[in-house]
Amino acid sequence: MSPLWGKPQYVDEQTRELGREVDAADAADSGAPEDRVREAVEAAAETKGSGDLGEQGRPVNRRSPFFIGMTGAAGVAATIGLVEVLLKARSVLVLIIVALFIAAGLDPMARWLTRRGLPRWAAVVAVLLAVIAIVGGFIASAVPPLAAQTSALVHEMPKYMHELQDHNSTLGKLNVKYHVQQRVTSLLSSKGTALIGGVVGAGELVIGAFSSMVLVLVLTVYFLASLDRTKVFFYRMIPQSRRERGILLGEEIFTKVGGYVLGNVLTSLIAGAGTFAWMLAWGIPYPLLLGMMVALLDLIPVIGSWVGGIIVTLVALTVSLPVAVATLIFYVCYKLAEDYFIVPRVMGRTVRVPALVSLIASGELQPGQHLVETDLAGQLGVSRQPIREALHRMEAEGWIDLRPSQGAFVHVPTATEVDELLDVRGLLEAETARLAARNCDAAGLARLRALWEEGQAAVRAGYLGAAATVNHAFHAQLAAVAGNTVLAALAGSVSRRVQWYYRMAAPVRGQDSWAEHAELIDAIDARDEQRAQLLARAHTEGTRTAYHQADHL
Predict the structure, then answer these.
(1) pLDDT (0 to 100) of residue 52
(2) Are residues 506 and 535 in the same domain?
(3) What is the C-alpha separation between 111 and 255, in angstroms, rounded?
(4) Quick one: 308 and 381 in the same domain?
(5) Among 410, 431, 456, where does a domain finish?
(6) 315 located within any domain
(7) Most-buried pick from 198, 311, 407, 459 (CB within 10 A)?
(8) In angstroms, rounded to a whole number, what is the distance separating the alpha carbons of residues 236 and 320?
(9) Closest by alpha carbon to 236, among 219, 228, 390?
(10) According to the model, what pLDDT value does residue 80 have?
(11) What are 119-127's contacts with CB under 8 Å, separation 24+?
């Protein structure tokens, strides 16, 4: 290479031009030290013809203050941009969420119809027609009274104007004292444009509300018809290492939402029916309209039934004051009955028991742990009444123990209970494995192998809770590929409690459980029914042994 203070020989015109620029820069700054730019230009001139692009420099220091600050600033900018996008689209996002919520609430009814032989599309159509019939009934009951009252007002308008001019009538005295007619005339003449603008604005509001309702209806139909595909779309966004748990949590959330909506609809129907019967009994006008209005308002948590009761009480004043007082007392009593009797039984049956059982079976609530109603209510987002009712039902099912003057505690399984349940489990699993070896197809076998790999990875990583969850999914898939729905239902009836016991035995079972799963998969793949049956029975006995070993640790 030429010395820095010499004149190098450049290989082409491009590097020669670059050298001239460097010489000009040196001439402009004669006091500068040795020029490293010239050295780089000379090195590039020598190696350009060989095709070599030179040596790579040191990697960027990702821990430098500049790089950290730039990364943080980029993150802040991206977050601000995302927030701006969400704010701009918030109205549409709210409608999408509302439609998805409604679809999740209507899905249990559609599935109920599907289980009774209807195709999915027919079940969806039937549910939507029922909803449209309810809404149409409310509108049909509301329009005639409103039209009659409007017609009566128009018919009586000349009479009211005549009384306004009569100084001896009540309206006339009010007109003289407060100048009602002059004020209305002045308002119409001076602010007519503002009033017209207000009317136009109200029309725009009505059109906007109608458009939103139509959009929610269309989205609800779409989500209800393709709810499974929608859930799969969201599940694909979850990382593979956490997808199994995400699916289980997602299904639990959809189940709880559907149960909550269904329970809320049932309590609202009870409120509407009670209002209708009360108004008929006391001769309060518009019983059908107000009964449906109370049913719709009761869908609003906490305050909905109170608002409906106040409206009905005010309407009852048109009959007499005693009837209005009696109506108010009726709604106070009904609210107490709803909070302490109706809601606990309906919600406890549709929502809370599965949620609390999941907390116990998943290991979040440990055996012997004291259960505080207020803590559970806050964790599940409900009042204490549904929790109290659910605890009584779970005591009957053997999940918890209610101790006088002490409260509720998670049940501690006895060795006898575990042995009896695993005896039943062993029989069911042996027959399930035999049928799986006979009926399993390639897709079902691939799903079993995928779950086995996921469980193996969880055990190797030390994630015993995740391994227990995947173990539950593996046995559920085994029951599914067996092809016997009655047997699958029987196996599912004990699966939650077995999952609970397996979590206690997981530290001892470890890799042995998944090695046994691998042998079982091979037997199913070989269509060896007898071997699959023996392996399944031995697998259950291994769980029994591991549980008793863990119990003595």
Answers:
(1) 66
(2) yes
(3) 12
(4) yes
(5) 410
(6) yes
(7) 459
(8) 62
(9) 228
(10) 92
(11) 120/225, 121/225, 124/221, 124/224, 124/225, 127/224
Residue type, 314: L
The number of folded domains in the chain is 3
Domain end position, chosen among 381, 410, 439: 410
Tokens encoding 42:
């000379």
- Please answer whether residues 487 and 428 qualify as being in contact, where contact means their C-beta atoms are separated by less than 8 angstroms: yes
Contact 385/337 with Cβ under 8 angstroms? no
What interhelical angle do 287-297 and 120-165 show, nearest 10? 120
Q: Which residues of the chain have pLDDT under 50?
A: 1-11, 30-33, 552
H-helix segments, 89-119: 90-115
Shared-domain flag, residues 304 and 340: yes
pLDDT score recorded for residue 2: 42
* Dist CA 129 CA 409 (whole Å): 45
Asked if residue 131 belongs to a domain, the reply is: no
Q: Which residues contact 8 (CB under 8 A, 6 or more apart)?
A: 1, 2, 19, 41, 42, 45
The CATH number of the domain where 546 resides is what? 1.20.120.530
Contact 289, 318 (CB under 8 A): no
| Tokens read off for 549 | 């070993």
Q: Is residue 152 part of a domain?
A: no
Give the pLDDT of residue 196: 56
**CA dist list (Å): 412 to 212, 392, 500, 538:** 52, 17, 11, 25
pLDDT per residue as tens digits for the range 209-266 = 778 888 888 888 888 888 878 887 887 888 877 776 677 677 767 777 777 777 778 8
Instruction: Specify whether 443 is located in the same domain as 390.
Output: no
Both 543 and 420 in one domain: the answer is yes
My answer on whether 382 and 441 are in the same domain is no
CA–CA dist 39, 54 (Å, integer): 13
Please answer whether residues 520 and 539 qualify as being in contact, where contact means their C-beta atoms are separated by less than 8 angstroms: yes
Joined tokens for residue 170: 């009540």
Q: Is residue 433 a contact partner of residue 536, using CB atoms and an 8 Å limit?
A: yes
Nearest CA to 313 out of 329, 292, 335, 337 is that of 329
Same domain? 392 vs 458: no
Angle at 519 between CA 435 and CA 552, to 5 degrees: 105
* Whole-number pLDDT of residue 33: 44
Centroid of chain to Cα 404:
37
Query: Are residue 351 and residue 463 in the same domain, yes or no?
Result: no
CB 433: neighbour CB atoms within 10 A?
Answer: 27
Domain that holds residue 19: 1-23+36-47
Domain membership of residue 5 (yes or no) is: yes
